[in-house]
Amino acid sequence: xxxxxxxxxxxxxxxxxxxxxxxxxxxxxxxxxxxxxxxxxxxxxxxxxxxxxxxxxxxxxxxxxxxxxxxxxxxxxxxxxxxxxxxxxxxxxxxxxxxxxxxxxxxxxxxxxxxxxxxxxxxxxxxxxxxxxxxxxxxxxxxxxxxxxxxxxxxxxxxxxxxxxxxxxxxxxxxxxxxxxxxxxxxxxxxxxxxxxxxxxxxxxxxxxxxxxxxxxxxxxxxxxxxxxxxxxxxxxxxxxxxxxxxxxxxxxxxxxxxxxxxxxxxxxxxxxxxxxxxxxxxxxxxxxxxxxxxxxxxxxxxxxx
Amino acid sequence: xxxxxxxxxxxxxxxxxxxxxxxxxxxxxxxxxxxxxxxxxxxxxxxxxxxxxxxxxxxxxxxxxxxxxxxxxxxxxxxxxxxxxxxxxxxxxxxxxxxxxxxxxxxxxxxxxxxxxxxxxxxxxxxxxxxxxxxxxxxxxxxxxxxxxxxxxxxxxxxxxxxxxxxxxxxxxxxxxxxxxxxxxxxxxxxxxxxxxxxxxxxxxxxxxxxxxxxxxxxxxxxxxxxxxxxxxxxxxxxxxxxxxxxxxxxxxxxxxxxxxxxxxxxxxxxxxx
Lengths: 306, 274
Fold this sequence. Notes:
Number of domains of chain A: 1
CATH architecture of chain B: 3-Layer(aba) Sandwich
CATH class of chain B: Alpha Beta
Number of helices of chain A: 13
Oligomer: heterodimer
Strand order of the largest sheet of chain B: 6-7-8-3-9-10
Number of domains of chain B: 1
Number of strands of chain B: 10
Order of helices and strands of chain B: EEEHEEHEHHHEHEHEEHH
Helix content of chain A: over 70%
Radius of gyration of chain B: 19 Å
CATH class of chain A: Mainly Alpha
Distance between the termini of chain A: 49 Å
Distance between the termini of chain B: 42 Å
Strand content of chain A: under 5%
Shape of chain A: globular
Shape of chain B: globular
Number of strands of chain A: 2
Largest sheet of chain A: 2 strands, antiparallel
Strand order of the largest sheet of chain A: 1-2
Number of helices of chain B: 9
CATH superfamily of chain B: P-loop containing nucleotide triphosphate hydrolases
Largest sheet of chain B: 6 strands, mixed
Strand content of chain B: 15-25%
């Protein structure tokens, strides 16, 4: 077991934890703060992946990142537009956009359901050349991902404490109060969903360069996995500043990947992963509820006995 | 004196054309002069809250006109109107965001003052913090030392007092109080009411207050309105009002509405109880 923590499998799971942690952060904004279950997450992740992969293949690994985020913003805007201006239920708006994105993603990969990035420069392959130190050779991917995630956390901490950020946080808490403060909740929902979708797409774009490939099905189940990470994260850190909370969410994602890696170590087939994440989400929601119930029954039993 | 609020023949029917059709406002006319403080009484479903919601813009009226300080706001959007309107509800949970701190809540409410001057990307300044602290200390509830606490931790009375501060921090053109003390215990209710009259007096606010306490309806403010079946059936002020007793008020209702004031929450003052 000790070997595991020092080995490359541990580093890999940390890398994946940071990478997918961005989707968990996206859900922290849409689900945690705005109180909207954004089901376009799966499609949006693949969108970021597809746009990122296409541009990387075209020889623009750096441009690929903001381009994917811009695509995510557009996707988030459409989802928000449907629910704030067109009267579509928020869950339905997410499902509609998710379905539509399948075709968009297919087109973004040049009318193909997968795309290889092998042979093209990626931000990781370029960063590898920066130093020849031995420790760097082993951890450069982790270093880059850690830097990106930290920057995102700092930006979120700043942004969510600005006037606009406060209004976004209040929208999921008490929409009525936001309106009473002369802010249009439709506006805050739109901004919030654009930001959350851009983070999802960013994660997708990084994955395309990390795995050097993109597949139309990469996004499937992403929302559940991110939700599992978010819930683990909120169990770890449930109070404190935005900075502390966002780092908690990232830690949740890393812990999730660690659990998966350990499960794989015990020869769990990769196909079981989605079922495992579904079970983790269910457990995270059900356990507090059952605990509550159990306390009630215990009290009732002790009263009967007494 | 000038008129602050003018409501002309406002009507509203909910769910028109269905079995749930409900005409909540039928031709309401009301003029409030600057500095008027009117209490509103009326039976359940008389249209008191609906009238408030028409003023704040929670829905658009079917017909009629609403003019606030000379501006026709009949078709103005709710979040744009809110800059000039303070609205407190019976439920203390309605006016604040529970998971955010006192300071953050106040900062949001203070946006009304700084809509144009302040950028959306600025954070709470030290000067604002001082200003919030000073406002809170006037409540005498010790909230100024708990500015980093989530509002969800406060009691109902504290939350309602905070909401009052937030609603009046930027002087509104009109303050709407919808039974804002009804859900509080008697001692707290009195405290919040005293605070309300103090704030209204100090800022010379124009104010409408719904109450179920008949005694309060005659004592607080300078004018008493009575609503029944979607219209205002009684409007007393000045000497005529000061001569009225709770019995007179109930008698007036009987005469105007043709029935007893049937409200299970009506509170009568001590002198009427036999």
